[in-house]
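Might you be able to check the C-alpha coordinates below? Thank you kindly.
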Amino acid sequence: MSNKTQNKLFNYIISNSEIDDIQSRFISYKLELNKVQNITLIELIKESHYTFYTDNGSYKVKTVNVPLPISSVVRN
Protein backbone atom coordinates (compact mmCIF):
# COMPACT_ATOMS: atom_id res chain seq x y z
CA MET A 1 0.00 0.00 0.00
CA SER A 2 1.17 3.50 -0.78
CA ASN A 3 1.85 5.86 2.10
CA LYS A 4 1.31 8.71 -0.37
CA THR A 5 -2.35 7.74 -0.87
CA GLN A 6 -2.92 7.26 2.86
CA ASN A 7 -1.38 10.68 3.61
CA LYS A 8 -3.56 12.33 0.94
CA LEU A 9 -6.70 10.76 2.44
CA PHE A 10 -5.58 11.71 5.96
CA ASN A 11 -4.98 15.36 4.98
CA TYR A 12 -8.39 15.57 3.30
CA ILE A 13 -10.15 14.17 6.39
CA ILE A 14 -8.29 16.54 8.77
CA SER A 15 -9.04 19.58 6.57
CA ASN A 16 -12.70 18.82 5.91
CA SER A 17 -14.07 17.43 9.17
CA GLU A 18 -13.89 17.73 12.94
CA ILE A 19 -12.40 14.23 13.28
CA ASP A 20 -9.23 14.15 15.38
CA ASP A 21 -5.87 13.10 13.95
CA ILE A 22 -5.70 9.63 15.54
CA GLN A 23 -9.10 8.61 14.18
CA SER A 24 -8.36 10.29 10.84
CA ARG A 25 -5.19 8.22 10.46
CA PHE A 26 -7.10 5.00 11.17
CA ILE A 27 -9.93 5.95 8.78
CA SER A 28 -7.47 6.79 6.00
CA TYR A 29 -5.75 3.42 6.55
CA LYS A 30 -9.07 1.53 6.35
CA LEU A 31 -10.13 3.43 3.23
CA GLU A 32 -6.81 2.69 1.55
CA LEU A 33 -7.29 -1.02 2.28
CA ASN A 34 -10.57 -0.72 0.34
CA LYS A 35 -8.64 0.76 -2.61
CA VAL A 36 -9.95 4.32 -2.16
CA GLN A 37 -7.81 6.90 -3.97
CA ASN A 38 -9.90 10.07 -3.45
CA ILE A 39 -12.59 11.34 -1.10
CA THR A 40 -15.06 13.56 -2.93
CA LEU A 41 -17.28 14.59 0.00
CA ILE A 42 -17.58 14.14 3.75
CA GLU A 43 -21.17 14.56 4.93
CA LEU A 44 -21.99 14.93 8.64
CA ILE A 45 -25.15 12.90 9.31
CA LYS A 46 -25.36 13.57 13.04
CA GLU A 47 -22.78 14.11 15.76
CA SER A 48 -19.92 11.63 15.26
CA HIS A 49 -21.62 9.95 12.25
CA TYR A 50 -20.38 10.70 8.75
CA THR A 51 -20.81 9.44 5.21
CA PHE A 52 -17.64 9.52 3.12
CA TYR A 53 -18.24 9.63 -0.65
CA THR A 54 -15.22 8.30 -2.52
CA ASP A 55 -14.09 7.14 -5.94
CA ASN A 56 -14.77 3.57 -4.71
CA GLY A 57 -18.25 3.93 -3.23
CA SER A 58 -19.56 5.49 -0.03
CA TYR A 59 -18.64 4.56 3.53
CA LYS A 60 -20.39 5.11 6.85
CA VAL A 61 -17.95 6.34 9.47
CA LYS A 62 -18.65 6.47 13.21
CA THR A 63 -16.26 8.25 15.54
CA VAL A 64 -16.13 8.24 19.32
CA ASN A 65 -15.08 10.95 21.77
CA VAL A 66 -13.23 9.05 24.48
CA PRO A 67 -9.69 9.39 25.81
CA LEU A 68 -8.56 6.67 23.39
CA PRO A 69 -10.60 7.18 20.22
CA ILE A 70 -12.05 4.19 18.40
CA SER A 71 -13.51 4.35 14.90
CA SER A 72 -15.71 2.19 12.71
CA VAL A 73 -15.60 2.21 8.90
CA VAL A 74 -18.21 0.16 7.03
CA ARG A 75 -18.92 0.21 3.30
CA ASN A 76 -22.52 1.13 2.42
Remarks:
- The chain has a mean pLDDT of 91.
